[in-house]
Amino acid sequence: MNADPGELAAAITDDDVARVRDLLRDATEADRKAYAKALRPLFDGPASGRSATRGGAAFLTARLALAAGVAAAHRAVRDCESWGTFAARHFDVFASVLADRRPPWLAEFADLLLRDGYWSDPGWWPPAPECTWPSWPRTPSTG
């Protein structure tokens, strides 16, 4: 692993989405599996009193970056208490951690989110210019 799981846990607890992405940017799938195992108590345990609640942006960023597959990624979004309150910059990071990884289940994940209406509000669209990702889904109102 490139980073200490404790450092990643601290970034999640501090709700530091940029740090979570930086720590996981070059992680291999084996690294991601090891991080997910090490952080299972944080992900599955009771929500803390700090920003790492299940609705925190860094929490969701890590869950997406470490998801074992499409079902886990979909569950992370579905269980997120704050989905509708995130700023556009958070959605840019969510997209970026998936773009860094390019999992084989990405298209299926996007289809699930569209089907379930998670992208029905295009108010945060489009992603920032630095998030140039050709397979990023478009909502009907944005082309």
What does it look like?
It contains eight helices and no strands. With 143 residues, the chain is mostly helical. Helix content is 53%, strand content 0%. The chain has one domain (5-124). It is globular. α2 (17-24) packs parallel to α7 (88-101), α5 runs antiparallel to α6 and α6 (70-79) runs parallel beside α8. It has helices at 5-13, 17-24, 29-38, 40-44, 57-66, 70-79, 88-101, 106-115.
Short key terms for the protein model shown above:
143 residues
Itemize the secondary structure elements and their pairings.
Layout: H1 5-13, H2 17-24, H3 29-38, H4 40-44, H5 57-66, H6 70-79, H7 88-101, H8 106-115
Concise description?
The chain has one domain. Helix content is 53%, strand content 0%.
Mean pLDDT: 79
How big is the Rg?
Answer: 14 Å
- What's the number of structural domains? 1
Low-confidence stretches: 122-143
- Biggest β-sheet strands, sense, barrel: none
Overall, the morphology is globular
Total number of helices: 8
The percentage helix is 40-55%
Structural class: mainly alpha
Strand share of the residues?
under 5%
What's the order of the H and E elements? HHHHHHHH
The N- and C-terminal alpha carbons lie at a distance of 40 Å
